[in-house]
Amino acid sequence: MTLLQIATTGVLQGLIYALIGLGLYLIFNVMRVVNFAHGYFVLIGMYGVLSLSPRSLADFAVALLFVAAVAAAFGYFVERFLIESTLDKTGHAQLVITLSVGVALQYIFQVLYPEPYQTITNPWPMEAITALGVTISFARLAAGAVSLLLAVALSWLIYRTRLGVYMRACAESINGAMFVGVNVRRVYRSTFALGAAAAAVAGGLLIPFQPVSPLYGLELTVKAFIVVVIGGSGALWGTVAAGILLGVAEAASSVYISGSLGSSVIYTLFLLVILFRPQGLARRTVASA
Amino acid sequence: MMETALSVEGFSVWRGRSEIVRSVDLEVGQGELVCLLGSNGAGKTTLTEGLLGVIPARARKLEFHGRAIAGLRPWHRVRAGIVLVPQERSLFAGMTVEENLLVGARPRSQAGPFDLAAMYELFPRLKDRAGQLAGTLSGGERSMLAIARGLMLQPRTLVLDEPSLGLAPVIVQTIMRTISDINAAGVSILLIEQNVHQALRLASRGYVLDGGKIIAAGTAESLLASSLVESGYLGSTTSTREER
Question: Shortest CB distance from B90 goes to which of A168, A179, A183?
Answer without folding.
Answer: A179
